[in-house]
Design a protein that fits this description.
alpha/beta
């Protein structure tokens, strides 16, 4: 990106991250001379297949699963669809999710006329409501095929207590597949905890410094899903289609680099987030931090429940409209967002904020600032000044 401003601050890492140098270096040979189809039988194909096998081993080591449980996909949306539709088509029964899920999950469950469960003020699934929903399905003579609850909310950054969710699902719907959309978790949580307590976990490479169009789905041994994509039988008949070798090796490289840096990055980014939020709250009135920040410790767990991850600061600002605020921030060289980046650029009141019960007046001024490995103190200081100036201008 080329900035004409004195400073350019990219604070939209929850939408996509800049690729890590390790990922770029890993994929380049497979975009040039090592281009063979790994399904072939000749030497060039065998070399490509070996690269995939090595990437699979690396991914499994980071995620704490067996290599045979790793399925390479095109990203989070495909993985979420494969988990929901795959479970229902294979096992029948009802799909259940929370009201704050990414649309890649929520729209699947709504399409299947499943159960959508309320969330609390933090955007975390209401555990009592979840158990009641599962019992309601059983009471009407059906069974639950899949329960999907995200590890980290993509808009407000809240962390789901997945161990508690798993306990409820195992008790009230013991045969259900427990799926978690883990797309926003990799940079901030020990995702081995996520994989440990769930049956299916889905990941997207471009959210942790990998390329777009590449992802991972962990399908635990003993979990059976109907394939979403059928064809040549790749990925042990779980996801057909010619392998994206360059994307796969880059995904593994980005995942390794992210895992190695995670503990130090959690602390560093938490301090940057606190610096930005405290500056904005001190400069402006009628502003709330939608999900209050924790004081995160290195190596925090994904399964215990928490406030919000270091990588997402979500503010609701009274007296402004998100669209106008984002326009002024863009002019000032700050990249931010109002909500998910998957809504074709349309700015509407977020379904997540509605589900959380955020006052509509404040929700209209929603602002998500998200951080990552490239974020600096200069970025957050510039953003804090730009936000304060833009809000004051819009309120006058």
């Amino acid at each position: 990106m080329v900035a004409t401003q004195a400073h350019f601050a990219y604070l939209d890492h929850a939408a996509t991250t800049p690729m890590r140098a390790e990922a770029i270096a890993a994929m380049q040979p497979y975009l040039a001379d090592q281009f063979a189809n790994p399904s072939g039988s000749h030497r060039a194909s065998r070399n490509a297949r070996l690269a995939i096998d090595e990437a699979r081993d690396d991914v499994a080591a980071v995620l704490g699963c067996a290599p045979g449980e790793v399925v390479f996909t095109s990203g989070g949306t495909e993985g979420d669809n494969a988990a929901i539709f795959g479970a229902v088509r294979r096992h029948g029964g009802a799909a259940v999710c929370s009201a704050a899920e990414h649309h890649a999950v929520l729209h699947c469950v709504e399409h299947l006329r499943g159960e959508v469960v309320a969330v609390d003020r933090r955007g975390v699934v209401d555990l009592v409501a979840l158990e009641e929903a599962l019992q309601r399905v059983v009471a009407r003579g059906e069974h639950v095929s899949v329960v999907s609850v995200m590890a980290v909310n993509n808009e407000v950054g809240s962390v789901t207590p997945l161990r508690d969710v798993a306990r409820i699902v195992r008790r009230s719907a013991p045969n259900a597949v427990l799926h978690t959309d883990s797309v926003q978790a990799v940079c901030w949580l020990d995702v081995r905890d996520v994989v440990l307590v769930t049956d299916v976990a889905t990941f997207s490479a471009h959210k942790f410094g990998g390329p777009k169009g590449a992802g991972v789905m962990v399908v635990k041994s003993g979990t059976s899903l109907e394939p979403l994509i059928m064809g040549g039988g790749q990925e042990r008949d779980r996801r057909s289609g010619t392998h994206n070798v360059a994307g796969i090796v880059a995904t593994a490289a980005a995942l390794r680099a992210t895992a190695e840096a995670r503990e130090s990055e959690v602390q560093r980014v938490a301090e940057l987030k606190q610096r930005l939020v405290s500056t904005v709250l001190g400069a402006l009135d009628d502003v709330i931090e939608t999900v209050p920040s924790a004081s995160p410790q290195s190596g925090r767990s994904a399964v215990s429940g928490d406030a919000s991850v270091p990588g997402v600061a979500h503010l609701c600002i009274g007296g402004v409209e998100s669209e106008a605020l984002l326009f002024l921030l863009d002019e000032a060289g700050v990249c931010a967002s109002a909500a998910s980046a998957c809504a074709s650029g349309a700015l509407e009141t977020s379904h997540v904020l509605r589900a959380m019960g955020v006052d509509a007046r404040l929700a209209r001024g929603a602002l998500r600032l998200s951080f990552g490995h490239s974020t600096t103190q200069a970025d957050v200081d510039h953003a804090a000044r730009a936000i304060s100036a833009a809000v004051k201008r819009l309120r006058n």
